[in-house]
Amino acid sequence: DTGVSQNPRHKITKRGQNVTFRCDPISEHNRLYWYRQTLGQGPEFLTYFQNEAQLEKSRLLSDRFSAERPKGSFSTLEIQRTEQGDSAMYLCASSLGQGPNEKLFFGSGTQLSVL
Amino acid sequence: SQKIEQNSEALNIQEGKTATLTCNYTNYSPAYLQWYRQDPGRGPVFLLLIRENEKEKRKERLKVTFDTTLKQSLFHITASQPADSATYLCALGDTGRRALTFGSGTRLQVQP
Predict the structure, then answer these.
(1) Which H or E run contains B13?
(2) What per-residue confidence (pLDDT) applies to B18?
(3) For B79-98, how does the pLDDT look when each residue is reduced to its tens digit (9 = 90+)?
(4) How much is the average pLDDT of B65-92?
(5) Chain B partners of A61 at a C-beta cutoff of 8 Å?
(6) Can you give the pLDDT at residue B97?
(7) ω before A8 within 30° of 0 (cis)?
(8) Cis before residue A100, ω within 30 degrees of 0?
(9) How far is A8 from chain B (nearest CA, A)?
C-alpha cells in the first residue's frame, strides 16, 4: 500500500535553524495539502497545490514558510529561522477529485520540536 | 469569524453503547461536512462525508446527520468497541474555499 509518506517522522532543531520536510503523495493524486496540528487542536490549513501550482496559502503562513511541489509530484515545506512557536505536527495530505467528493488521505506527519 | 466547535472533553462510554459526537459551527455555510478518525501519532483517516442537501448517511456502524438549520452535525457509533477509541474530527468544506476546515476533535474512550 503506497499511502502518503512523510519524512522525517521527527525533527528536533534549535531556534533560528532552517528545517525542510518532504511529502510523497499517493501517485495518482493531483492535489496536495499541508496542515499543522498542535496538541489538542485540529489540523490547521497552511497551503495547497494542484499539480505543481500553489493555489492557496493561509494568512497564518508567515514569510518564513515556503512550500514547493516541483513537477507536481513530491512536495517540500521549508521553515526558515525556526521559532519555538513552530513546534507542531506538520501533516501532508493528498487527494483526487474536488468539492464534496474530495477525501483527504493524510500521512503520519512530521513532529517538529524547536528548542 | 468562522468557528467549528467540538466537545473538548473526552467522551467515555461502555462497550456496546452508542457514542454520539457533536460538531457545531457558526458564521459558515458549508456545502459538505466530513468526519475523520485520528489515532495518537497518526494522521487523520477519512470516515464519512455528507452534503448539505442530505440529512443522514450511514456506513456500517457509523451514522452521521447534518442539520443546516441548527448548524450541527451528529456522529454516531453504534455497538461501540474498545477499538473505536480515538479522536474524531469534523471538517467543513465549501465550493468556494478549497481547503477543509477542521474542528479541534473529540476524544472517545470506549471501556471494555
Answers:
(1) strand B11-14
(2) 97
(3) 999 999 999 999 999 876 67
(4) 97
(5) none
(6) 63
(7) yes
(8) no
(9) 13
CB-CB contact of A3 with A105 (8 Å): yes
- Beta partners for B23? B6, B73
* Helix, strand or coil, per DSSP, at residue B82: helix
Retrieve residue B55's grid coordinates. 440529512
User: Do residues A93 and B102 touch, judged by C-beta distance below 8 A?
Assistant: no
Q: How many CB atoms lie within 10 A of CB A13?
A: 16
Asked if B100's CB is within 8 angstroms of A109's CB, the reply is no
B31:A100 CB<8 A: yes
B30 vs A: CB within 8 A: no
> How many other CB atoms are found less than 10 A from the CB of residue A104?
27
Residue A1 has pLDDT above 60, yes or no: no
Q: Which three cell numbers stand for residue A58?
A: 493561509
C-alpha to C-alpha distance for B70 and B60, rounded to whole angstroms: 26
The phi, psi pair for A100, rounded to 5°, reads -60, -25
* Number of other CB atoms surrounding residue A105 within 10 Å: 19
Interface probe, candidates A104, A106, A112, A113, chain B, greatest B C-beta count within 10 A: A104
Whether the pLDDT of residue A113 is over 60: the answer is yes
DSSP calls for A40-81: TS--EEEEEEETTEEEEE-TT--TTEEEE-GGGS-EEEEESS
C-alpha cell of B31? 456545502
If one compares B2 and A8, the residue with the highest pLDDT of the two is A8
Single-letter amino acid code for the residue at A102: E
Q: Distance between CA atoms of A97 and B40, rounded to whole angstroms?
A: 28
